[in-house]
Amino acid sequence: MRQGPFAAAGSPASAVVPMGRHLYRKSTQQMRLTSRLVSFVSRRTLWSEGQVYAVVPEQLDILDGVRAAISIAFLLAGAICLDIPDLAFSVVAAFWTSLCDPFGGARSRFRVMAKFAILGAIVFALSSFGAHFGTVAATATLFTLVALCCLGRSYAPAFGPGPAQGSFISAIAVVIGVSTPRPFEGALQLGGCFLLGSTATILISTLIWPNHTNAPGRLLLVTIYSRLRTMLSALIDLDRSPVADSAAWLQYETLTRRAVRIAIERGRQIVARRLLGSKPHGHAVDVASRLLGNLIALGHLRRSGGAFSEDSVTLLRDLDELLREVIDCLDSGAMTSARINEDARSLHRAAEDQNRAFGRCIEGAAIALMSLGGTTSPEQRQDVLSTGLLATIFERPAMPSVVWHQALRVATAVTACHLVEGWLGVTLSYWGTIATLVVMQPALGNTWARVLERATGTLLGGLVAAGLLMNSPGDVAMALAIVPLAAAVIALRTVNYALFTIFLTPMFMLLSDLIRPADDLIFLRAVNESLGALFGVVASILIFPTKDRVAISDTLRTAVSANLSFASSVRRSRHGPHSAEIAKAQADAGVGSSRAEVAAMGLSLGNGAIASSDALNSVLLALRNVCGASAVFETLGDHDPQVDTQRADYYEAMSSVLEMQLRTWTLGDLPMPFPKSGDELDQAVADLALTVQAFIRAYGRGGRGYGGQ
Predict the structure, then answer these.
(1) Got the DSSP string for 409-455?
(2) Mean pLDDT of 530-552
(3) How many angstroms separate the CA atoms of 659 and 557, rounded?
């Protein structure tokens, strides 16, 4: 009976435990509690990836929460001890500045937070002063300043939550300012309090206690490799399951594969922004991307070639065990170990005895893991300022059409909510106006998702607030409750919005009661949140509504272009698998497909007809097939330079035609197919062309039919 390679290579007998046909080594160490928690949560929230309700446990940062709590505690103590109520606005500013902390180095963090501090103080004072002149002036001020602040927002596709944008938080400051009308001197005083709170947070975060923890990088890599192991385990289970149906495979190839790709791409962003371009961490993320390519190829082989042999399954389990060792090593703070290299070499040798296709996939995975220790140079710091301070603070933002539309939509909805709540005489009406501002997203489906998340968080947070307010605590008791709540909010701000809201709700209810005492806070919170959500949803439906096909068109064009570019790259490559060009093309293809799937999910939440259509689902499936066939060809393909060049040209021509047809929503002739008998990659490209044209036929303006087909 054949044994897995981990039984070889001189492993001591005491280090292995037999389990059926396979030999597993006992883990010699326990993962840290935080790593185990992050890995556990991450494996069970794959379905959430890519949406506004994503769960990103690896971005939990307790030290950030503690830093924010210190500045908030200092300012709260001043407000209570000095009996200066306006200092409570400094507390709010300190909290908002912490929300805008972008991670990374001290200089880049200072730049972003300073920009917010200046903008926030200006609009806070202006809105308060404008509201001093009455309802008409307050309404005009609110609409104008909210619209201007929203013009500074960006809506580029992103996976998972990130730090709040300063312009967005400044719009919230406008709402608070309008609800606090003051004459000129009083408005200046409020602006000064705002600057005081922001300055305190900036000094503590960038000068007194800068962030030097290694935890974000460690948790990032643990999450990525844990998801890779989840993907491999799912493949093994599907292969061995006698009842694995198309639905199970579809979930594997959509949710599981997308979750891994998104974790990898989010990892690249974190390495660049939060880890200052650390080369070891960046290299480990690149290795993970190569492993994903091999797993995609293995899944593609299994779907097209039938069940794996027993020996093949044994190697898959060996690879699974090797990934577990890598995760343990990463959790300890190291990138690799001699034991991992030894086991990877054993896996590589064992793969040579397998059939050509399967063996080369396993060999590729083993080689990737052996290269984990290939980059050991110091971190490359990118925290520099190439221009003066004022130039970096007042950067000129890009203004795509979605920003203009969303700014006007949000400003109109916020103003309408403000007027209606004022007419109804709702107490603490700025809560409802803020809710409208927060829930509105460019896509209706994402607005619904944000409403559901905020409702869940507010309900649970309201229960916490009810318990804290039950015995009518005094100012000191409320301050003692606000500080740890603020620490939790900041620590969770990029983990999950609903979880963030659970702690945000009682914190701001207590802070509001400290600034403006009121009765029935729980009831008022429920009324304001409901009205705010209602105005947000209605405005998203009625003001600049986005048509389904417009919402999906850009992402589909990008996905088609990226996947056909990947197919073309593997045809043209003369540098073997895993070249830098192919790695980038594969990453772009995976991200493009994931964003198309995410866009479809967002449309489905808004009851989009296109999102639930068979035509769109067929396009998404065809995109995944092109990516999978390209990954297989990268690993297994036999290159014929002349034929490959012709086929690459054909893919690029097809990409241009399909992009044009998706842009104009009209049908036309496709490039003439390649005359010689095609392989699996050719068939996948042809299927993609047919599904795209079927999609355009269903939802476009029609045309001349399937040219040449």
Answers:
(1) HHHHHHHHHHHHHHHHT-TTTHHHHHHHHHH--SSHHHHHHHHHHHH
(2) 84
(3) 5
